[in-house]
Structures are given as structure tokens and as C-alpha cells.
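Weekly sync, protein design subgroup
Attendees: M.S., D.O., the rotation student, P.L. (late)

Item 1: inverse folding check
M.S. brought a backbone from last month's batch and wanted to see whether the design step gives back something sensible before we order anything. D.O. pointed out we never logged the input encoding, so this time it goes straight into the notes. C-alpha cells as presented (898 positions):
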């Protein structure tokens, strides 16, 4: 058995890990190709930095984009520290500045965006089970929604016990300075977790799983000075880090490199964020330490430190501690390994000498990792040595210019939506190519690492120059695990906690890709690569993404939510999107039946449709209609299923489907949902002959809902505002954040002229611009009379709402609005209320969060010329798709008028 085999066996079978770490470790960092700085000479220098320290740092934040990317990049890239970012939520409750995808699908997208940023920071990524339920003003409300402290606290403790950081860093302070209640809660929980992770009586179920208590040595908090501040009072901070310093390996400053990653978080509006050259500082305060002596060691006369790790010995030998008494041979072995690593770093450009030193360190490390020599309980070094061995092998591969590519080639013309996916019960071919200048024959071996039950056979092996190429055929068992999120919420619009469906991957971004390859030539490094799918799209561009496993058939109902009126409402109409992932050209056509199921008394038309799918046309859309029977206000469901015929392993039924979540700058993952259409039945009167125009802003589903309840609505593209005959519409609605579109700004006068001439304009919430979005709503003076747009919001969805002008027509036509219509709202009441307005405006509603002053700027109406102008900050863009009855009625009234 080679030293590589021994090390791998130890990593996979060590009893002090609750999971198969070989699977978990690959879950985070293979959704993207390596950056240029991670290859060649630059990549080797970064790896050697990692080998020079065993330091481990963990930062905790609340949402994607909260992270201190400059600091993380400085630590991970600049100093080689093993760095982990724990983001409590996936940002699923936020606003999507790119489109209408919200809730859990947005959470999947933001996970991909954060992973894209992480590859620049150079960090591992973890999440907790708590969900982003929208803006919260207090930690008390946050903890109430998250079921108290213990759910999120247990998740932070779990990650601390797994990752074993020396330094724990809260991004926020845990005070009102942090603003968002989630921000405050994340810091409060981090401070609690610092000691809780070391207490075996806290969350003992984790100890029973095999995790060990862990006490981080130092705890820091952030946001002790204003965000972005370049100066800070000396007594407010312990550590001042210059993230504006240029790193010669990265070719720019740490903050600039981090921002290249942050720009991938486009759904947050961060695509254009940048900083100029020059010093940039970030500040942190040391608030706790174990032992307590670390609170003062390393500080200068002003009480400041130079580094997070001041006072902590991060050398290999420094990790011995009391374990040296149990295994005295460790000091000599670890000292020798460290000397070899140091020698590799001092060698300079002599790659042969670098590899010679690293190879010696690798052999010595592998010997120490032999199971039972000594036992893992004898020393915590096993934890560090396993990571060290992996990093040495990466550094050796860079030194020797060895690379492994493992791909499945998808058919020409594939798109992100239909590129190849493995299917249970099917086979596919994998080509692995191992490149090494040392190659002289075919002795280099490539093997596939497959999940349990998968089979592979070698079809061909050949030597071409400096490459060994092997082709495998892989058989996927019927029991293969589908590539999908390991968590879910039954009601994404209301549930505030995620349910974990597969505990093996708890805390990780996604489950790992199913197939890996590894190659090794003689005593060379062990080189690994995740199996990727490579496809050329219709435009000719080549894309890659990790191999995924999909069900043979996917079925989705579009739309997934419908809102209908109790009376005089159209039938439910939609389409079933049925897709086959069977791609073999030899595959015979599959014939199956699509069947709709509906509540008693509701009639699907037709109840059954026969569908044929083949490799040439693997997708079919089936139109359906459901005629509702007796209905009263409430909720119902209709569902669909596709029943495959007997051609493949007997008859099988498929009742769910997936959406491909990706973008040109992102990796790819999949959002699954049942083939169910949730129907909200609303007692609403609708003027069916009212001509309404809708100008989409950032993206929302309000037009869809208005059409579902029978309103006559046409979309007006923003670019056609200059030429559209606006007079043909009785009402025009501007979607959320419409003034982020320059075409809306350019035609604002035309819209106001439309109102002056007798039209009705409903303007939904807008912002004052952020992160480079070129909007100045107040400076633009877009309203017909002076107003000031503020940042006030009402985040408690149950906050009382007072009707200020009960006689106003908006509360009477065509629906009578009462206090009951504000029950059952989701996530929040509204955002970006007006803070002041001219007397021509009449405020119609008042609502405010507990303990705060009245907010009357959420719904303002004014007569302008012959028409009516309405500004509405209440978040109907969430309420209407959720089928909240009162919100539907009130929005219809706003649009209808007289």
C-alpha cells in the first residue's frame, strides 16, 4: 500500500469524524474551474503559504454579501490560513435585483453566487438551517422566528467542532450598530458558540455522533467602527488590517481581488462594486480568549495586535500540547516534516528540488497517517496532518505540472437546461486525461471513485505524448441519489427553518458531485478531479459543470401558483413541462401518460394525456385546464404526474421536477419542487374590461396574478415607453424598482403627462440606489409633487395597519376593504416608505413596527390634472403570488379606480 493509499484510508475511516470527509471536502470547491492565480507558479506560491501554517480562522455572518471579503482573502490567500466562512442563511428572503425568482430558488442562486465569491476569497463555506425570512429590526424578532437561539447555535457549534478554528470572528458586533436583526443575532450567537462548542454538555447529540468538543482560542467581533471607515478610535479596536495592500502573487490588493468575487453576487446588486488602489482598513476587537492570557499577549502599548494569531503557535510542532506526553515520537516527526516544507519554500525556482522536499514531507506525513500508528486518540495531529497531506499533494502537482481532467461530453447543441445528466438505471461514458511531463509509458493509473452501488469498466487506455487517456463506462444503479438540495421548506413563503433531508451534508453548500477521478504516476502526487460535463452551446461557447444525477423524467406545472376568484373567474390554465433525461440515441421512444389530479368536484380537462418522448424531442409541454367546482376563500391544490410505460424496468410514476439554476458567470445546481399547483381562492371582484398596462421593473409576478383572476393586462416593455400609446390604458402600473431602468427615467415626464390627461399611475416601491446603481429617486423628482423617499420599512408582517381615510374610493371599489384584509400577510408589510410629501398627497394607511413612530408614507394618492397618481410601498410583490386575499383585493382596488 502506498503512502497515498494509507493517507486516504485514514481520512476515510478515522472514527473521530462523523461524516465521510472525502465526500464533504469535495462539496465546496469544485463548482468552478481554477482561477489563473491558482495555477502555475502563482498557484504553487499560494499552496506553499498554506503549508507554512496550521492556523485556522472562522468568520460567522448572517447573509450572503455580509462577509468581510478583503479580510478573508488576506488571511486565506495572503497568509495561507485555513479559513471558513459560515453564512447562517442563504439570503432566500431577500430582494432579487435580477429577476422574479424568490424564496428557496433564490437561496440556491445565492449559494452559487457566494461559492463564486468564495473561490476568490479562498475559503470553505458552511450554512445553518435557519432561513432568511426578510428584514428584521431586532434580534428578539429574529430569534423568535428561528425558534430561539438553539437551532442556529447548534449549527455554529457543529461547524466549530468539525473545523476546529483557532480564531472565531463575528462579522458584526451584536448591538444596534449592526442594523438588521439577523446581523445582530449572528454576532450574539457567535459569542455564545465560542464557549458552547467546548462544553460536551451542550448539544451532546453531536458528541454521540463522533464530534469532539472544541475550544477556539480567540474571539473577535467586527463592526466596531463604521463600515468602510479608514480611521477608528484606538480604544474601539484591537486589530487593524490593511486589505488594500497589493499581493504580488494575486497581482492586486486583497480587497480588489475579493471584489472580483463579490461582483458575482449580482442578485444583490453588486456587479459594479469596485475600489481604487490604496490602503483600505478593516477593524476587529478581541472580546474573549482561552486561556485568558491571550487577551493581553501580543498587544502593544496601545492595546493593539498585529495579527489574529498573535500569541498562538500555528506551527506543526506547536500543535502538540499535552498530546506529546502520550506520543513523544511526534515532536521529532513533525519537526522533520516542517523542515522539509520550509526547505521547499526556500528552494526558489528549482522545481525538482521543491518536489524532492515535498515528496519527502508527503511520505513522512503519509506514514504518520497509517491507521493505528499511533491511534487517532493519541494526538490531535491527525486532524492537521490529513489536511496537510492534501495540500502537499496539491503543491506537488503544481510543481510537476500534473493535471487531471475528467469529463462527459454532452451532445452538440446542449444548453444549460438540457446538458447531459446521469440517470438511475442508465450507463454513460467518462473520459479521463492525466497530463504529466514525467510520463514515459502507460504506468500512470487513473481510477474512478464512485458512490456505493455504481459500477465502472475500462473501455480503452492509450498514451498520447505526455498524456494517459482512459475511457470508462459507468453504470448508475436505480438507487442512485439524485443531485438536489439536501434541505427543504414545505412552505417557503412562511417557514423560517429548513428541514435537513440528508444529514451527511448538513452545513455544506450542496451535496458533492457523484463521480471523481484520481491519478498517480509512481511516487508522484495523488491528483484528483471531479467529473465534469463539457458541452458546446448553440452559440459555440464551451461550458463545463459538475456531473449531476437526475431522475429519468422531470415534471413541473407552470405556473406553480395560481390565484382565482370565488366567482366569475377563468378556469385554471397552465402547462405541464415534461422532460426526459434519457439521451441514448439507441433509446426507443418512451410513451407515458400525464394525469391531472384535482379536488373533488373540480374537473381536469383532459384528465389523461398520452405523451411520447425520445432523444430527438426529449421535452413536451402539455396544456391543461381545470374547471373549479364549488369554491370558497381558502387554498386548494391540483397536481400532475407522469407515468412511464413498461419499456424501462417496469412502470414508474414521476411527480416532481427541477429547474436548472445557473448563469453565465456561475456554476450550476438544481431546484426541485413537486408537480403541484397551489391554488389560492380569493373572494375578489374584478373589473374584467379594464385595460391595464404593466411596466416591469426588477421583476415580479404581479402581472401573472392579475391575469389569473381575470384582469385584462398588457405588458409594456420599458424600451417602448417612448412610443407606446399610453392613452389606451386606463391604468398603468410600474413594477418594483422600475426607476432602476433608464428608459423609465427617460420617459417619466411622458408618464406624468399620461396622468395629467386622465390616466391612473400606480408606482410601486423604489430605492435610492446602492452599490453603484445609478438611481437618485429624490434628486430625480419623479413624482408629480415634491416627496422624499426614505428607508423606513415595516418588517413585522403582523404589525397593525390603520386605515386613515376610510371614505377613499380605494377602500370601496370594487371591493370593500376592512381591517381583516391585513391578516395573513407574509414576510413584511412594506419597504421604502416616503418620509415626507407635499400636501397634494393624501396618506391612506399607517403601519409601524413595535416601539417605532408612525409610518404614513406607505400608500400615498394624489390627483394630478385629470388623473390619479399612487405611490405604494406595501410589498404586494410578495403578497399577491402568496395569494393573500386582502392584499389581492386592495391591489385590484388600487388598479381599478373609477
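Designed sequence read out in the meeting:
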Amino acid at each position: 500500500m502506498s503512502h497515498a493509499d494509507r493517507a486516504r484510508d485514514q481520512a476515510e475511516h478515522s472514527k473521530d469524524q462523523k461524516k465521510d470527509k472525502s465526500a464533504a471536502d469535495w462539496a465546496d470547491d469544485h463548482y468552478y474551474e481554477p482561477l489563473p492565480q491558482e495555477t502555475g507558479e502563482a498557484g504553487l506560491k499560494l499552496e506553499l503559504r498554506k503549508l507554512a501554517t496550521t492556523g485556522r480562522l472562522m468568520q460567522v455572518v448572517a447573509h450572503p454579501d455580509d462577509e468581510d471579503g478583503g479580510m478573508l482573502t488576506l488571511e486565506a490567500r495572503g497568509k495561507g490560513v485555513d479559513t471558513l466562512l459560515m453564512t447562517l442563511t442563504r439570503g432566500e428572503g431577500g430582494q432579487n435585483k435580477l429577476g422574479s425568482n424568490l424564496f428557496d430558488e433564490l437561496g440556491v442562486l445565492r449559494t452559487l453566487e457566494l461559492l463564486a465569491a468564495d473561490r476568490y476569497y479562498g475559503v470553505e463555506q458552511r450554512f445553518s438551517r435557519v432561513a432568511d425570512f426578510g428584514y428584521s429590526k431586532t434580534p428578539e424578532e429574529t430569534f423568535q422566528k428561528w425558534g430561539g437561539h438553539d437551532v442556529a447555535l447548534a449549527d455554529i457549534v457543529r461547524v466549530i467542532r468539525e473545523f476546529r478554528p483557532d480564531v472565531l470572528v463575528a462579522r458584526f458586533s451584536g448591538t444596534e450598530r449592526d442594523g438588521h436583526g439577523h446581523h445582530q443575532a449572528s454576532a450574539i450567537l457567535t459569542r455564545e458558540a465560542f464557549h458552547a462548542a467546548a462544553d460536551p454538555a451542550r448539544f451532546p447529540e453531536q458528541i454521540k455522533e463522533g464530534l469532539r468538543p472544541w475550544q477556539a482560542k480567540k474571539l473577535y467581533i467586527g463592526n466596531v467602527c463604521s463600515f468602510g471607515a479608514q480611521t477608528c478610535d484606538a480604544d474601539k479596536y484591537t486589530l487593524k488590517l490593511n486589505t488594500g495592500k497589493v499581493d504580488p502573487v494575486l497581482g492586486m490588493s486583497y480587497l480588489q481581488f475579493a471584489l472580483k468575487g463579490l461582483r458575482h453576487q449580482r442578485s444583490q446588486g453588486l456587479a459594479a462594486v469596485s475600489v481604487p488602489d490604496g490602503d483600505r482598513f478593516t477593524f476587529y476587537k478581541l472580546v474573549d480568549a482561552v486561556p485568558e492570557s491571550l487577551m493581553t499577549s501580543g498587544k502593544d502599548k496601545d492595546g493593539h495586535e498585529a495579527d489574529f494569531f498573535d500569541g498562538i503557535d500555528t506551527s506543526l510542532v506547536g500543535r502538540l500540547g499535552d498530546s506529546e506526553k502520550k506520543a513523544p515520537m511526534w515532536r521529532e516527526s513533525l519537526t522533520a516534516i516542517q523542515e522539509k516544507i520550509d526547505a521547499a519554500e526556500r528552494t526558489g525556482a528549482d522545481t525538482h528540488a521543491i518536489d524532492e522536499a515535498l515528496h519527502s514531507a508527503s511520505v513522512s506525513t503519509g506514514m504518520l497517517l497509517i491507521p493505528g500508528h499511533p491511534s487517532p486518540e493519541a494526538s490531535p495531529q491527525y486532524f492537521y496532518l490529513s489536511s496537510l497531506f492534501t495540500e502537499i499533494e496539491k503543491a506537488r502537482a503544481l510543481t510537476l505540472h500534473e493535471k487531471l481532467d475528467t469529463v462527459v461530453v454532452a451532445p452538440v447543441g446542449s444548453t444549460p437546461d438540457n446538458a447531459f445528466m446521469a440517470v438511475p438505471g442508465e450507463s454513460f461514458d467518462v473520459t479521463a486525461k492525466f497530463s504529466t511531463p514525467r510520463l514515459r509509458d502507460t504506468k500512470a493509473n487513473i481510477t474512478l471513485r464512485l458512490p456505493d452501488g455504481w459500477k465502472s469498466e475500462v473501455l480503452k487506455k492509450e498514451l498520447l505524448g505526455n498524456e494517459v487517456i482512459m475511457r470508462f463506462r459507468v453504470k448508475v444503479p436505480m438507487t442512485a441519489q439524485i443531485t438536489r438540495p439536501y434541505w427543504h421548506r414545505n412552505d417557503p413563503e412562511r417557514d423560517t427553518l429548513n428541514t435537513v433531508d440528508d444529514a451527511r451534508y448538513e452545513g455544506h453548500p450542496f451535496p458533492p458531485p457523484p463521480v471523481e477521478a484520481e491519478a498517480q504516476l509512481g511516487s508522484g502526487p495523488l491528483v484528483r478531479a471531479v467529473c465534469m460535463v463539457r458541452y458546446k452551446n448553440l452559440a459555440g461557447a464551451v461550458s463545463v459543470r459538475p456531473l449531476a444525477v437526475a431522475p429519468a423524467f422531470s415534471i413541473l406545472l407552470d405556473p406553480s401558483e395560481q390565484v382565482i376568484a370565488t366567482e366569475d373567474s377563468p378556469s385554471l390554465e397552465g402547462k405541464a413541462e415534461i422532460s426526459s433525461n434519457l439521451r441514448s440515441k439507441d433509446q426507443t421512444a418512451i410513451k407515458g401518460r400525464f394525469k391531472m389530479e384535482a379536488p373533488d368536484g373540480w374537473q381536469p380537462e383532459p384528465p389523461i394525456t398520452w405523451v411520447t418522448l425520445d432523444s430527438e424531442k426529449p421535452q413536451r409541454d402539455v396544456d391543461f385546464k381545470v374547471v373549479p367546482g364549488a369554491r370558497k376563500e381558502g387554498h386548494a391544490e391540483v397536481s400532475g404526474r407522469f407515468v412511464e410505460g413498461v419499456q424501462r424496468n417496469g412502470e414508474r410514476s414521476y411527480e416532481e421536477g427541477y429547474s436548472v439554476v445557473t448563469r453565465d458567470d456561475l456554476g450550476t445546481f438544481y431546484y426541485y419542487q413537486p408537480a403541484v399547483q397551489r391554488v389560492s381562492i380569493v373572494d375578489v371582484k374584478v373589473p374584467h374590461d379594464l385595460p391595464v398596462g404593466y411596466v416591469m421593473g426588477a421583476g415580479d409576478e404581479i402581472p401573472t396574478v392579475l391575469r389569473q383572476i381575470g384582469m385584462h393586462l398588457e405588458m409594456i416593455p420599458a424600451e417602448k415607453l417612448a412610443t407606446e400609446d399610453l392613452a389606451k390604458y386606463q391604468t398603468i402600473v410600474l413594477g418594483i424598482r422600475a426607476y432602476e431602468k433608464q428608459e423609465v427615467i427617460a420617459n417619466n415626464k411622458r408618464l406624468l403627462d399620461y396622468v395629467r390627461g386622465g390616466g391612473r399611475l400606480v408606482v410601486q416601491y423604489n430605492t435610492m440606489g446602492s452599490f453603484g446603481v445609478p438611481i437618485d429617486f429624490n434628486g430625480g423628482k419623479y413624482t408629480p409633487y415634491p416627496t422624499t423617499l426614505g428607508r423606513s420599512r415595516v418588517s413585522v408582517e403582523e404589525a397593525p395597519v390603520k386605515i386613515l381615510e376610510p371614505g377613499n374610493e380605494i377602500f370601496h371599489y370594487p371591493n370593500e376593504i376592512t381591517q381583516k384584509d391585513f391578516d395573513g400577510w407574509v414576510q413584511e408589510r412594506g419597504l421604502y416608505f416616503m418620509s415626507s410629501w407635499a400636501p397634494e398627497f393624501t396618506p391612506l394607511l399607517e403601519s409601524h413596527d413595535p416601539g417605532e413612530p408612525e409610518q404614513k408614507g406607505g400608500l400615498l394618492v394624489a390627483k394630478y390634472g385629470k388623473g390619479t397618481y399612487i405611490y405604494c410601498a406595501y410589498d404586494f410583490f410578495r403578497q399577491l403570488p402568496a395569494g393573500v386575499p386582502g392584499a389581492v383585493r386592495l391591489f385590484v382596488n388600487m388598479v381599478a379606480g373609477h
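Discussion: The chain has 20 helices and 45 strands. Residues 1-28, 374-378 have pLDDT under 50 and may be disordered.
Action: P.L. to compare against the previous round before Friday.
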